[in-house]
Amino acid sequence: MKYFLVSFLAASFLFSCKQSKQAEKNTSVLYDSLYHPAVFIDADRMEKIKLALPVIDSIYRKHAEANHFPGISFGIVVDRQLIYKNSYGYTDVERKVPVTSSSMFRIASMSKSFTAMAILKLRDEGKLDLDDPAYFYIPELKNVKYPTADAPHVTVRHLMTHGAGFPEDNPWGDRQLADTDKELMEFIGKQISFSNPPGIAFEYSNLGFALLGKIITNVSGNRYQDYIKENIWQPLGMKNAEWEYGNIPAHKLAHGYRWLNNKWNEEQLLHDTPDGSWGAMGSMITSVDEFIKYILFHLSVWPPSNASETGPVKRSSVREMHHPWRWNGFNPNFKYPDGRSCAITSAYCYGLGWMKDCDGKTYISHSGGLPGFGSQWRIMPEYGIGVVAFANRTYSPFGTVNLRVLDTLIKLAGLQPMELPPSAILEKRKNDLVKLLPDWNNAKQSGIFAENFFPDYPIDTLKKHAQDLYAKAGKIISVKEMKPENQLRGSFILQGEKTDIEIYFTLSPENPPLIQEYHIRELPKEKK
Asked: Which fold has domain 45-413?
């Protein structure tokens, strides 16, 4: 009997597990079928953008002249394709070698996102954890003395988000590219000077990304340079990207200059030491032609979709790179290049910067600056557009001009962000609601409401409010389209003879989702 009972319980457990797995499978199928990625609804957007390109070209050309750039190269990306590129000036002023889109520029701190992407790839492979103390992977860090007794150990995530407590180290960090790992470990052994305890503030740290380079080397068993080249550059088709300028053909390499005393003075190029990790913060060399491939990959991860994974890292990991992990600013008086005021807030992601403005537009970007060079890339995933620009003048400023270029594209082409189509379940619940209104007859028996609904919304109140609004609206002329906020929340409008009615509802996490929240209000017609 005991054996029979145990066998019966075991069989019941297995059957329960099988049912649970089948339910999970059915749920997955249901939501796969319901999910519709956001799309652009303007079929003519590309043509409108192309009409604006002469203006964009003029902006870059005038910016280069005004800022004494020896050479400039830039590219414009729309809807996952390069639509325009151009170059002006010289990579070598003395020999008058013209800049082209294949000219190789040192992109300085734009290298940081490649380092962050490599860390995420190792994380995805189960080889490290972002919240582990960094000393797990660099043992020399275990003996670091922190500024307070209650300070946590520096984690990998702290390093990726400039939250380790190290001081801002520009331009000191710019001069460390040629340092070896032996020198880096000796530096740590002498103790690091902290500006803050770890984890409480943003402070830009090149040292932090040099340590990330060392982590990549220690965890992967390969030099970080080789790991990034083999696992990120090559899969993206970036065949010519380099860390060491000595490996670049002379006719391709952009020389760096400083504008001083009304003339260009050539800067000495810094080597990337083969046995050093400082290059992970800023020694990458590439061209606009190649960097565009990287931008296209970043834009390809939006919106989330059911497409097959084809990139060097998971799309979800790239979206994680775009997430604002460490807030670092709010400017209520920010002015766009055209002079209009629009408050912004900003944060640091993983090797990338994040900015959102008063209109809800989001920008992902990173600049680069070293003696002889300046660069920036900036994308707007919700608008499907991006720009990149390189120049060979010390700390060439690009932040404002790239912002102006994207803002100009949006204004001249009348661009709108991607719109989310309504899910099938939102459409169904909308139709279910319309059939019940305004009298709510048999609503409790309809099966479309979550268990909280009627305790939160008494039926008598629901009836009176809806009937009053319907009487005020007069005859209902049409039911407008659903405007989703996401897969399970949105609103629609009932167009009446005298006034309109807006209905807003939210669905529950159940399967199938049920209405858990509902609001109805008058929406006066706009006066003509």
From this structure: Beta-lactamase (3.40.710)
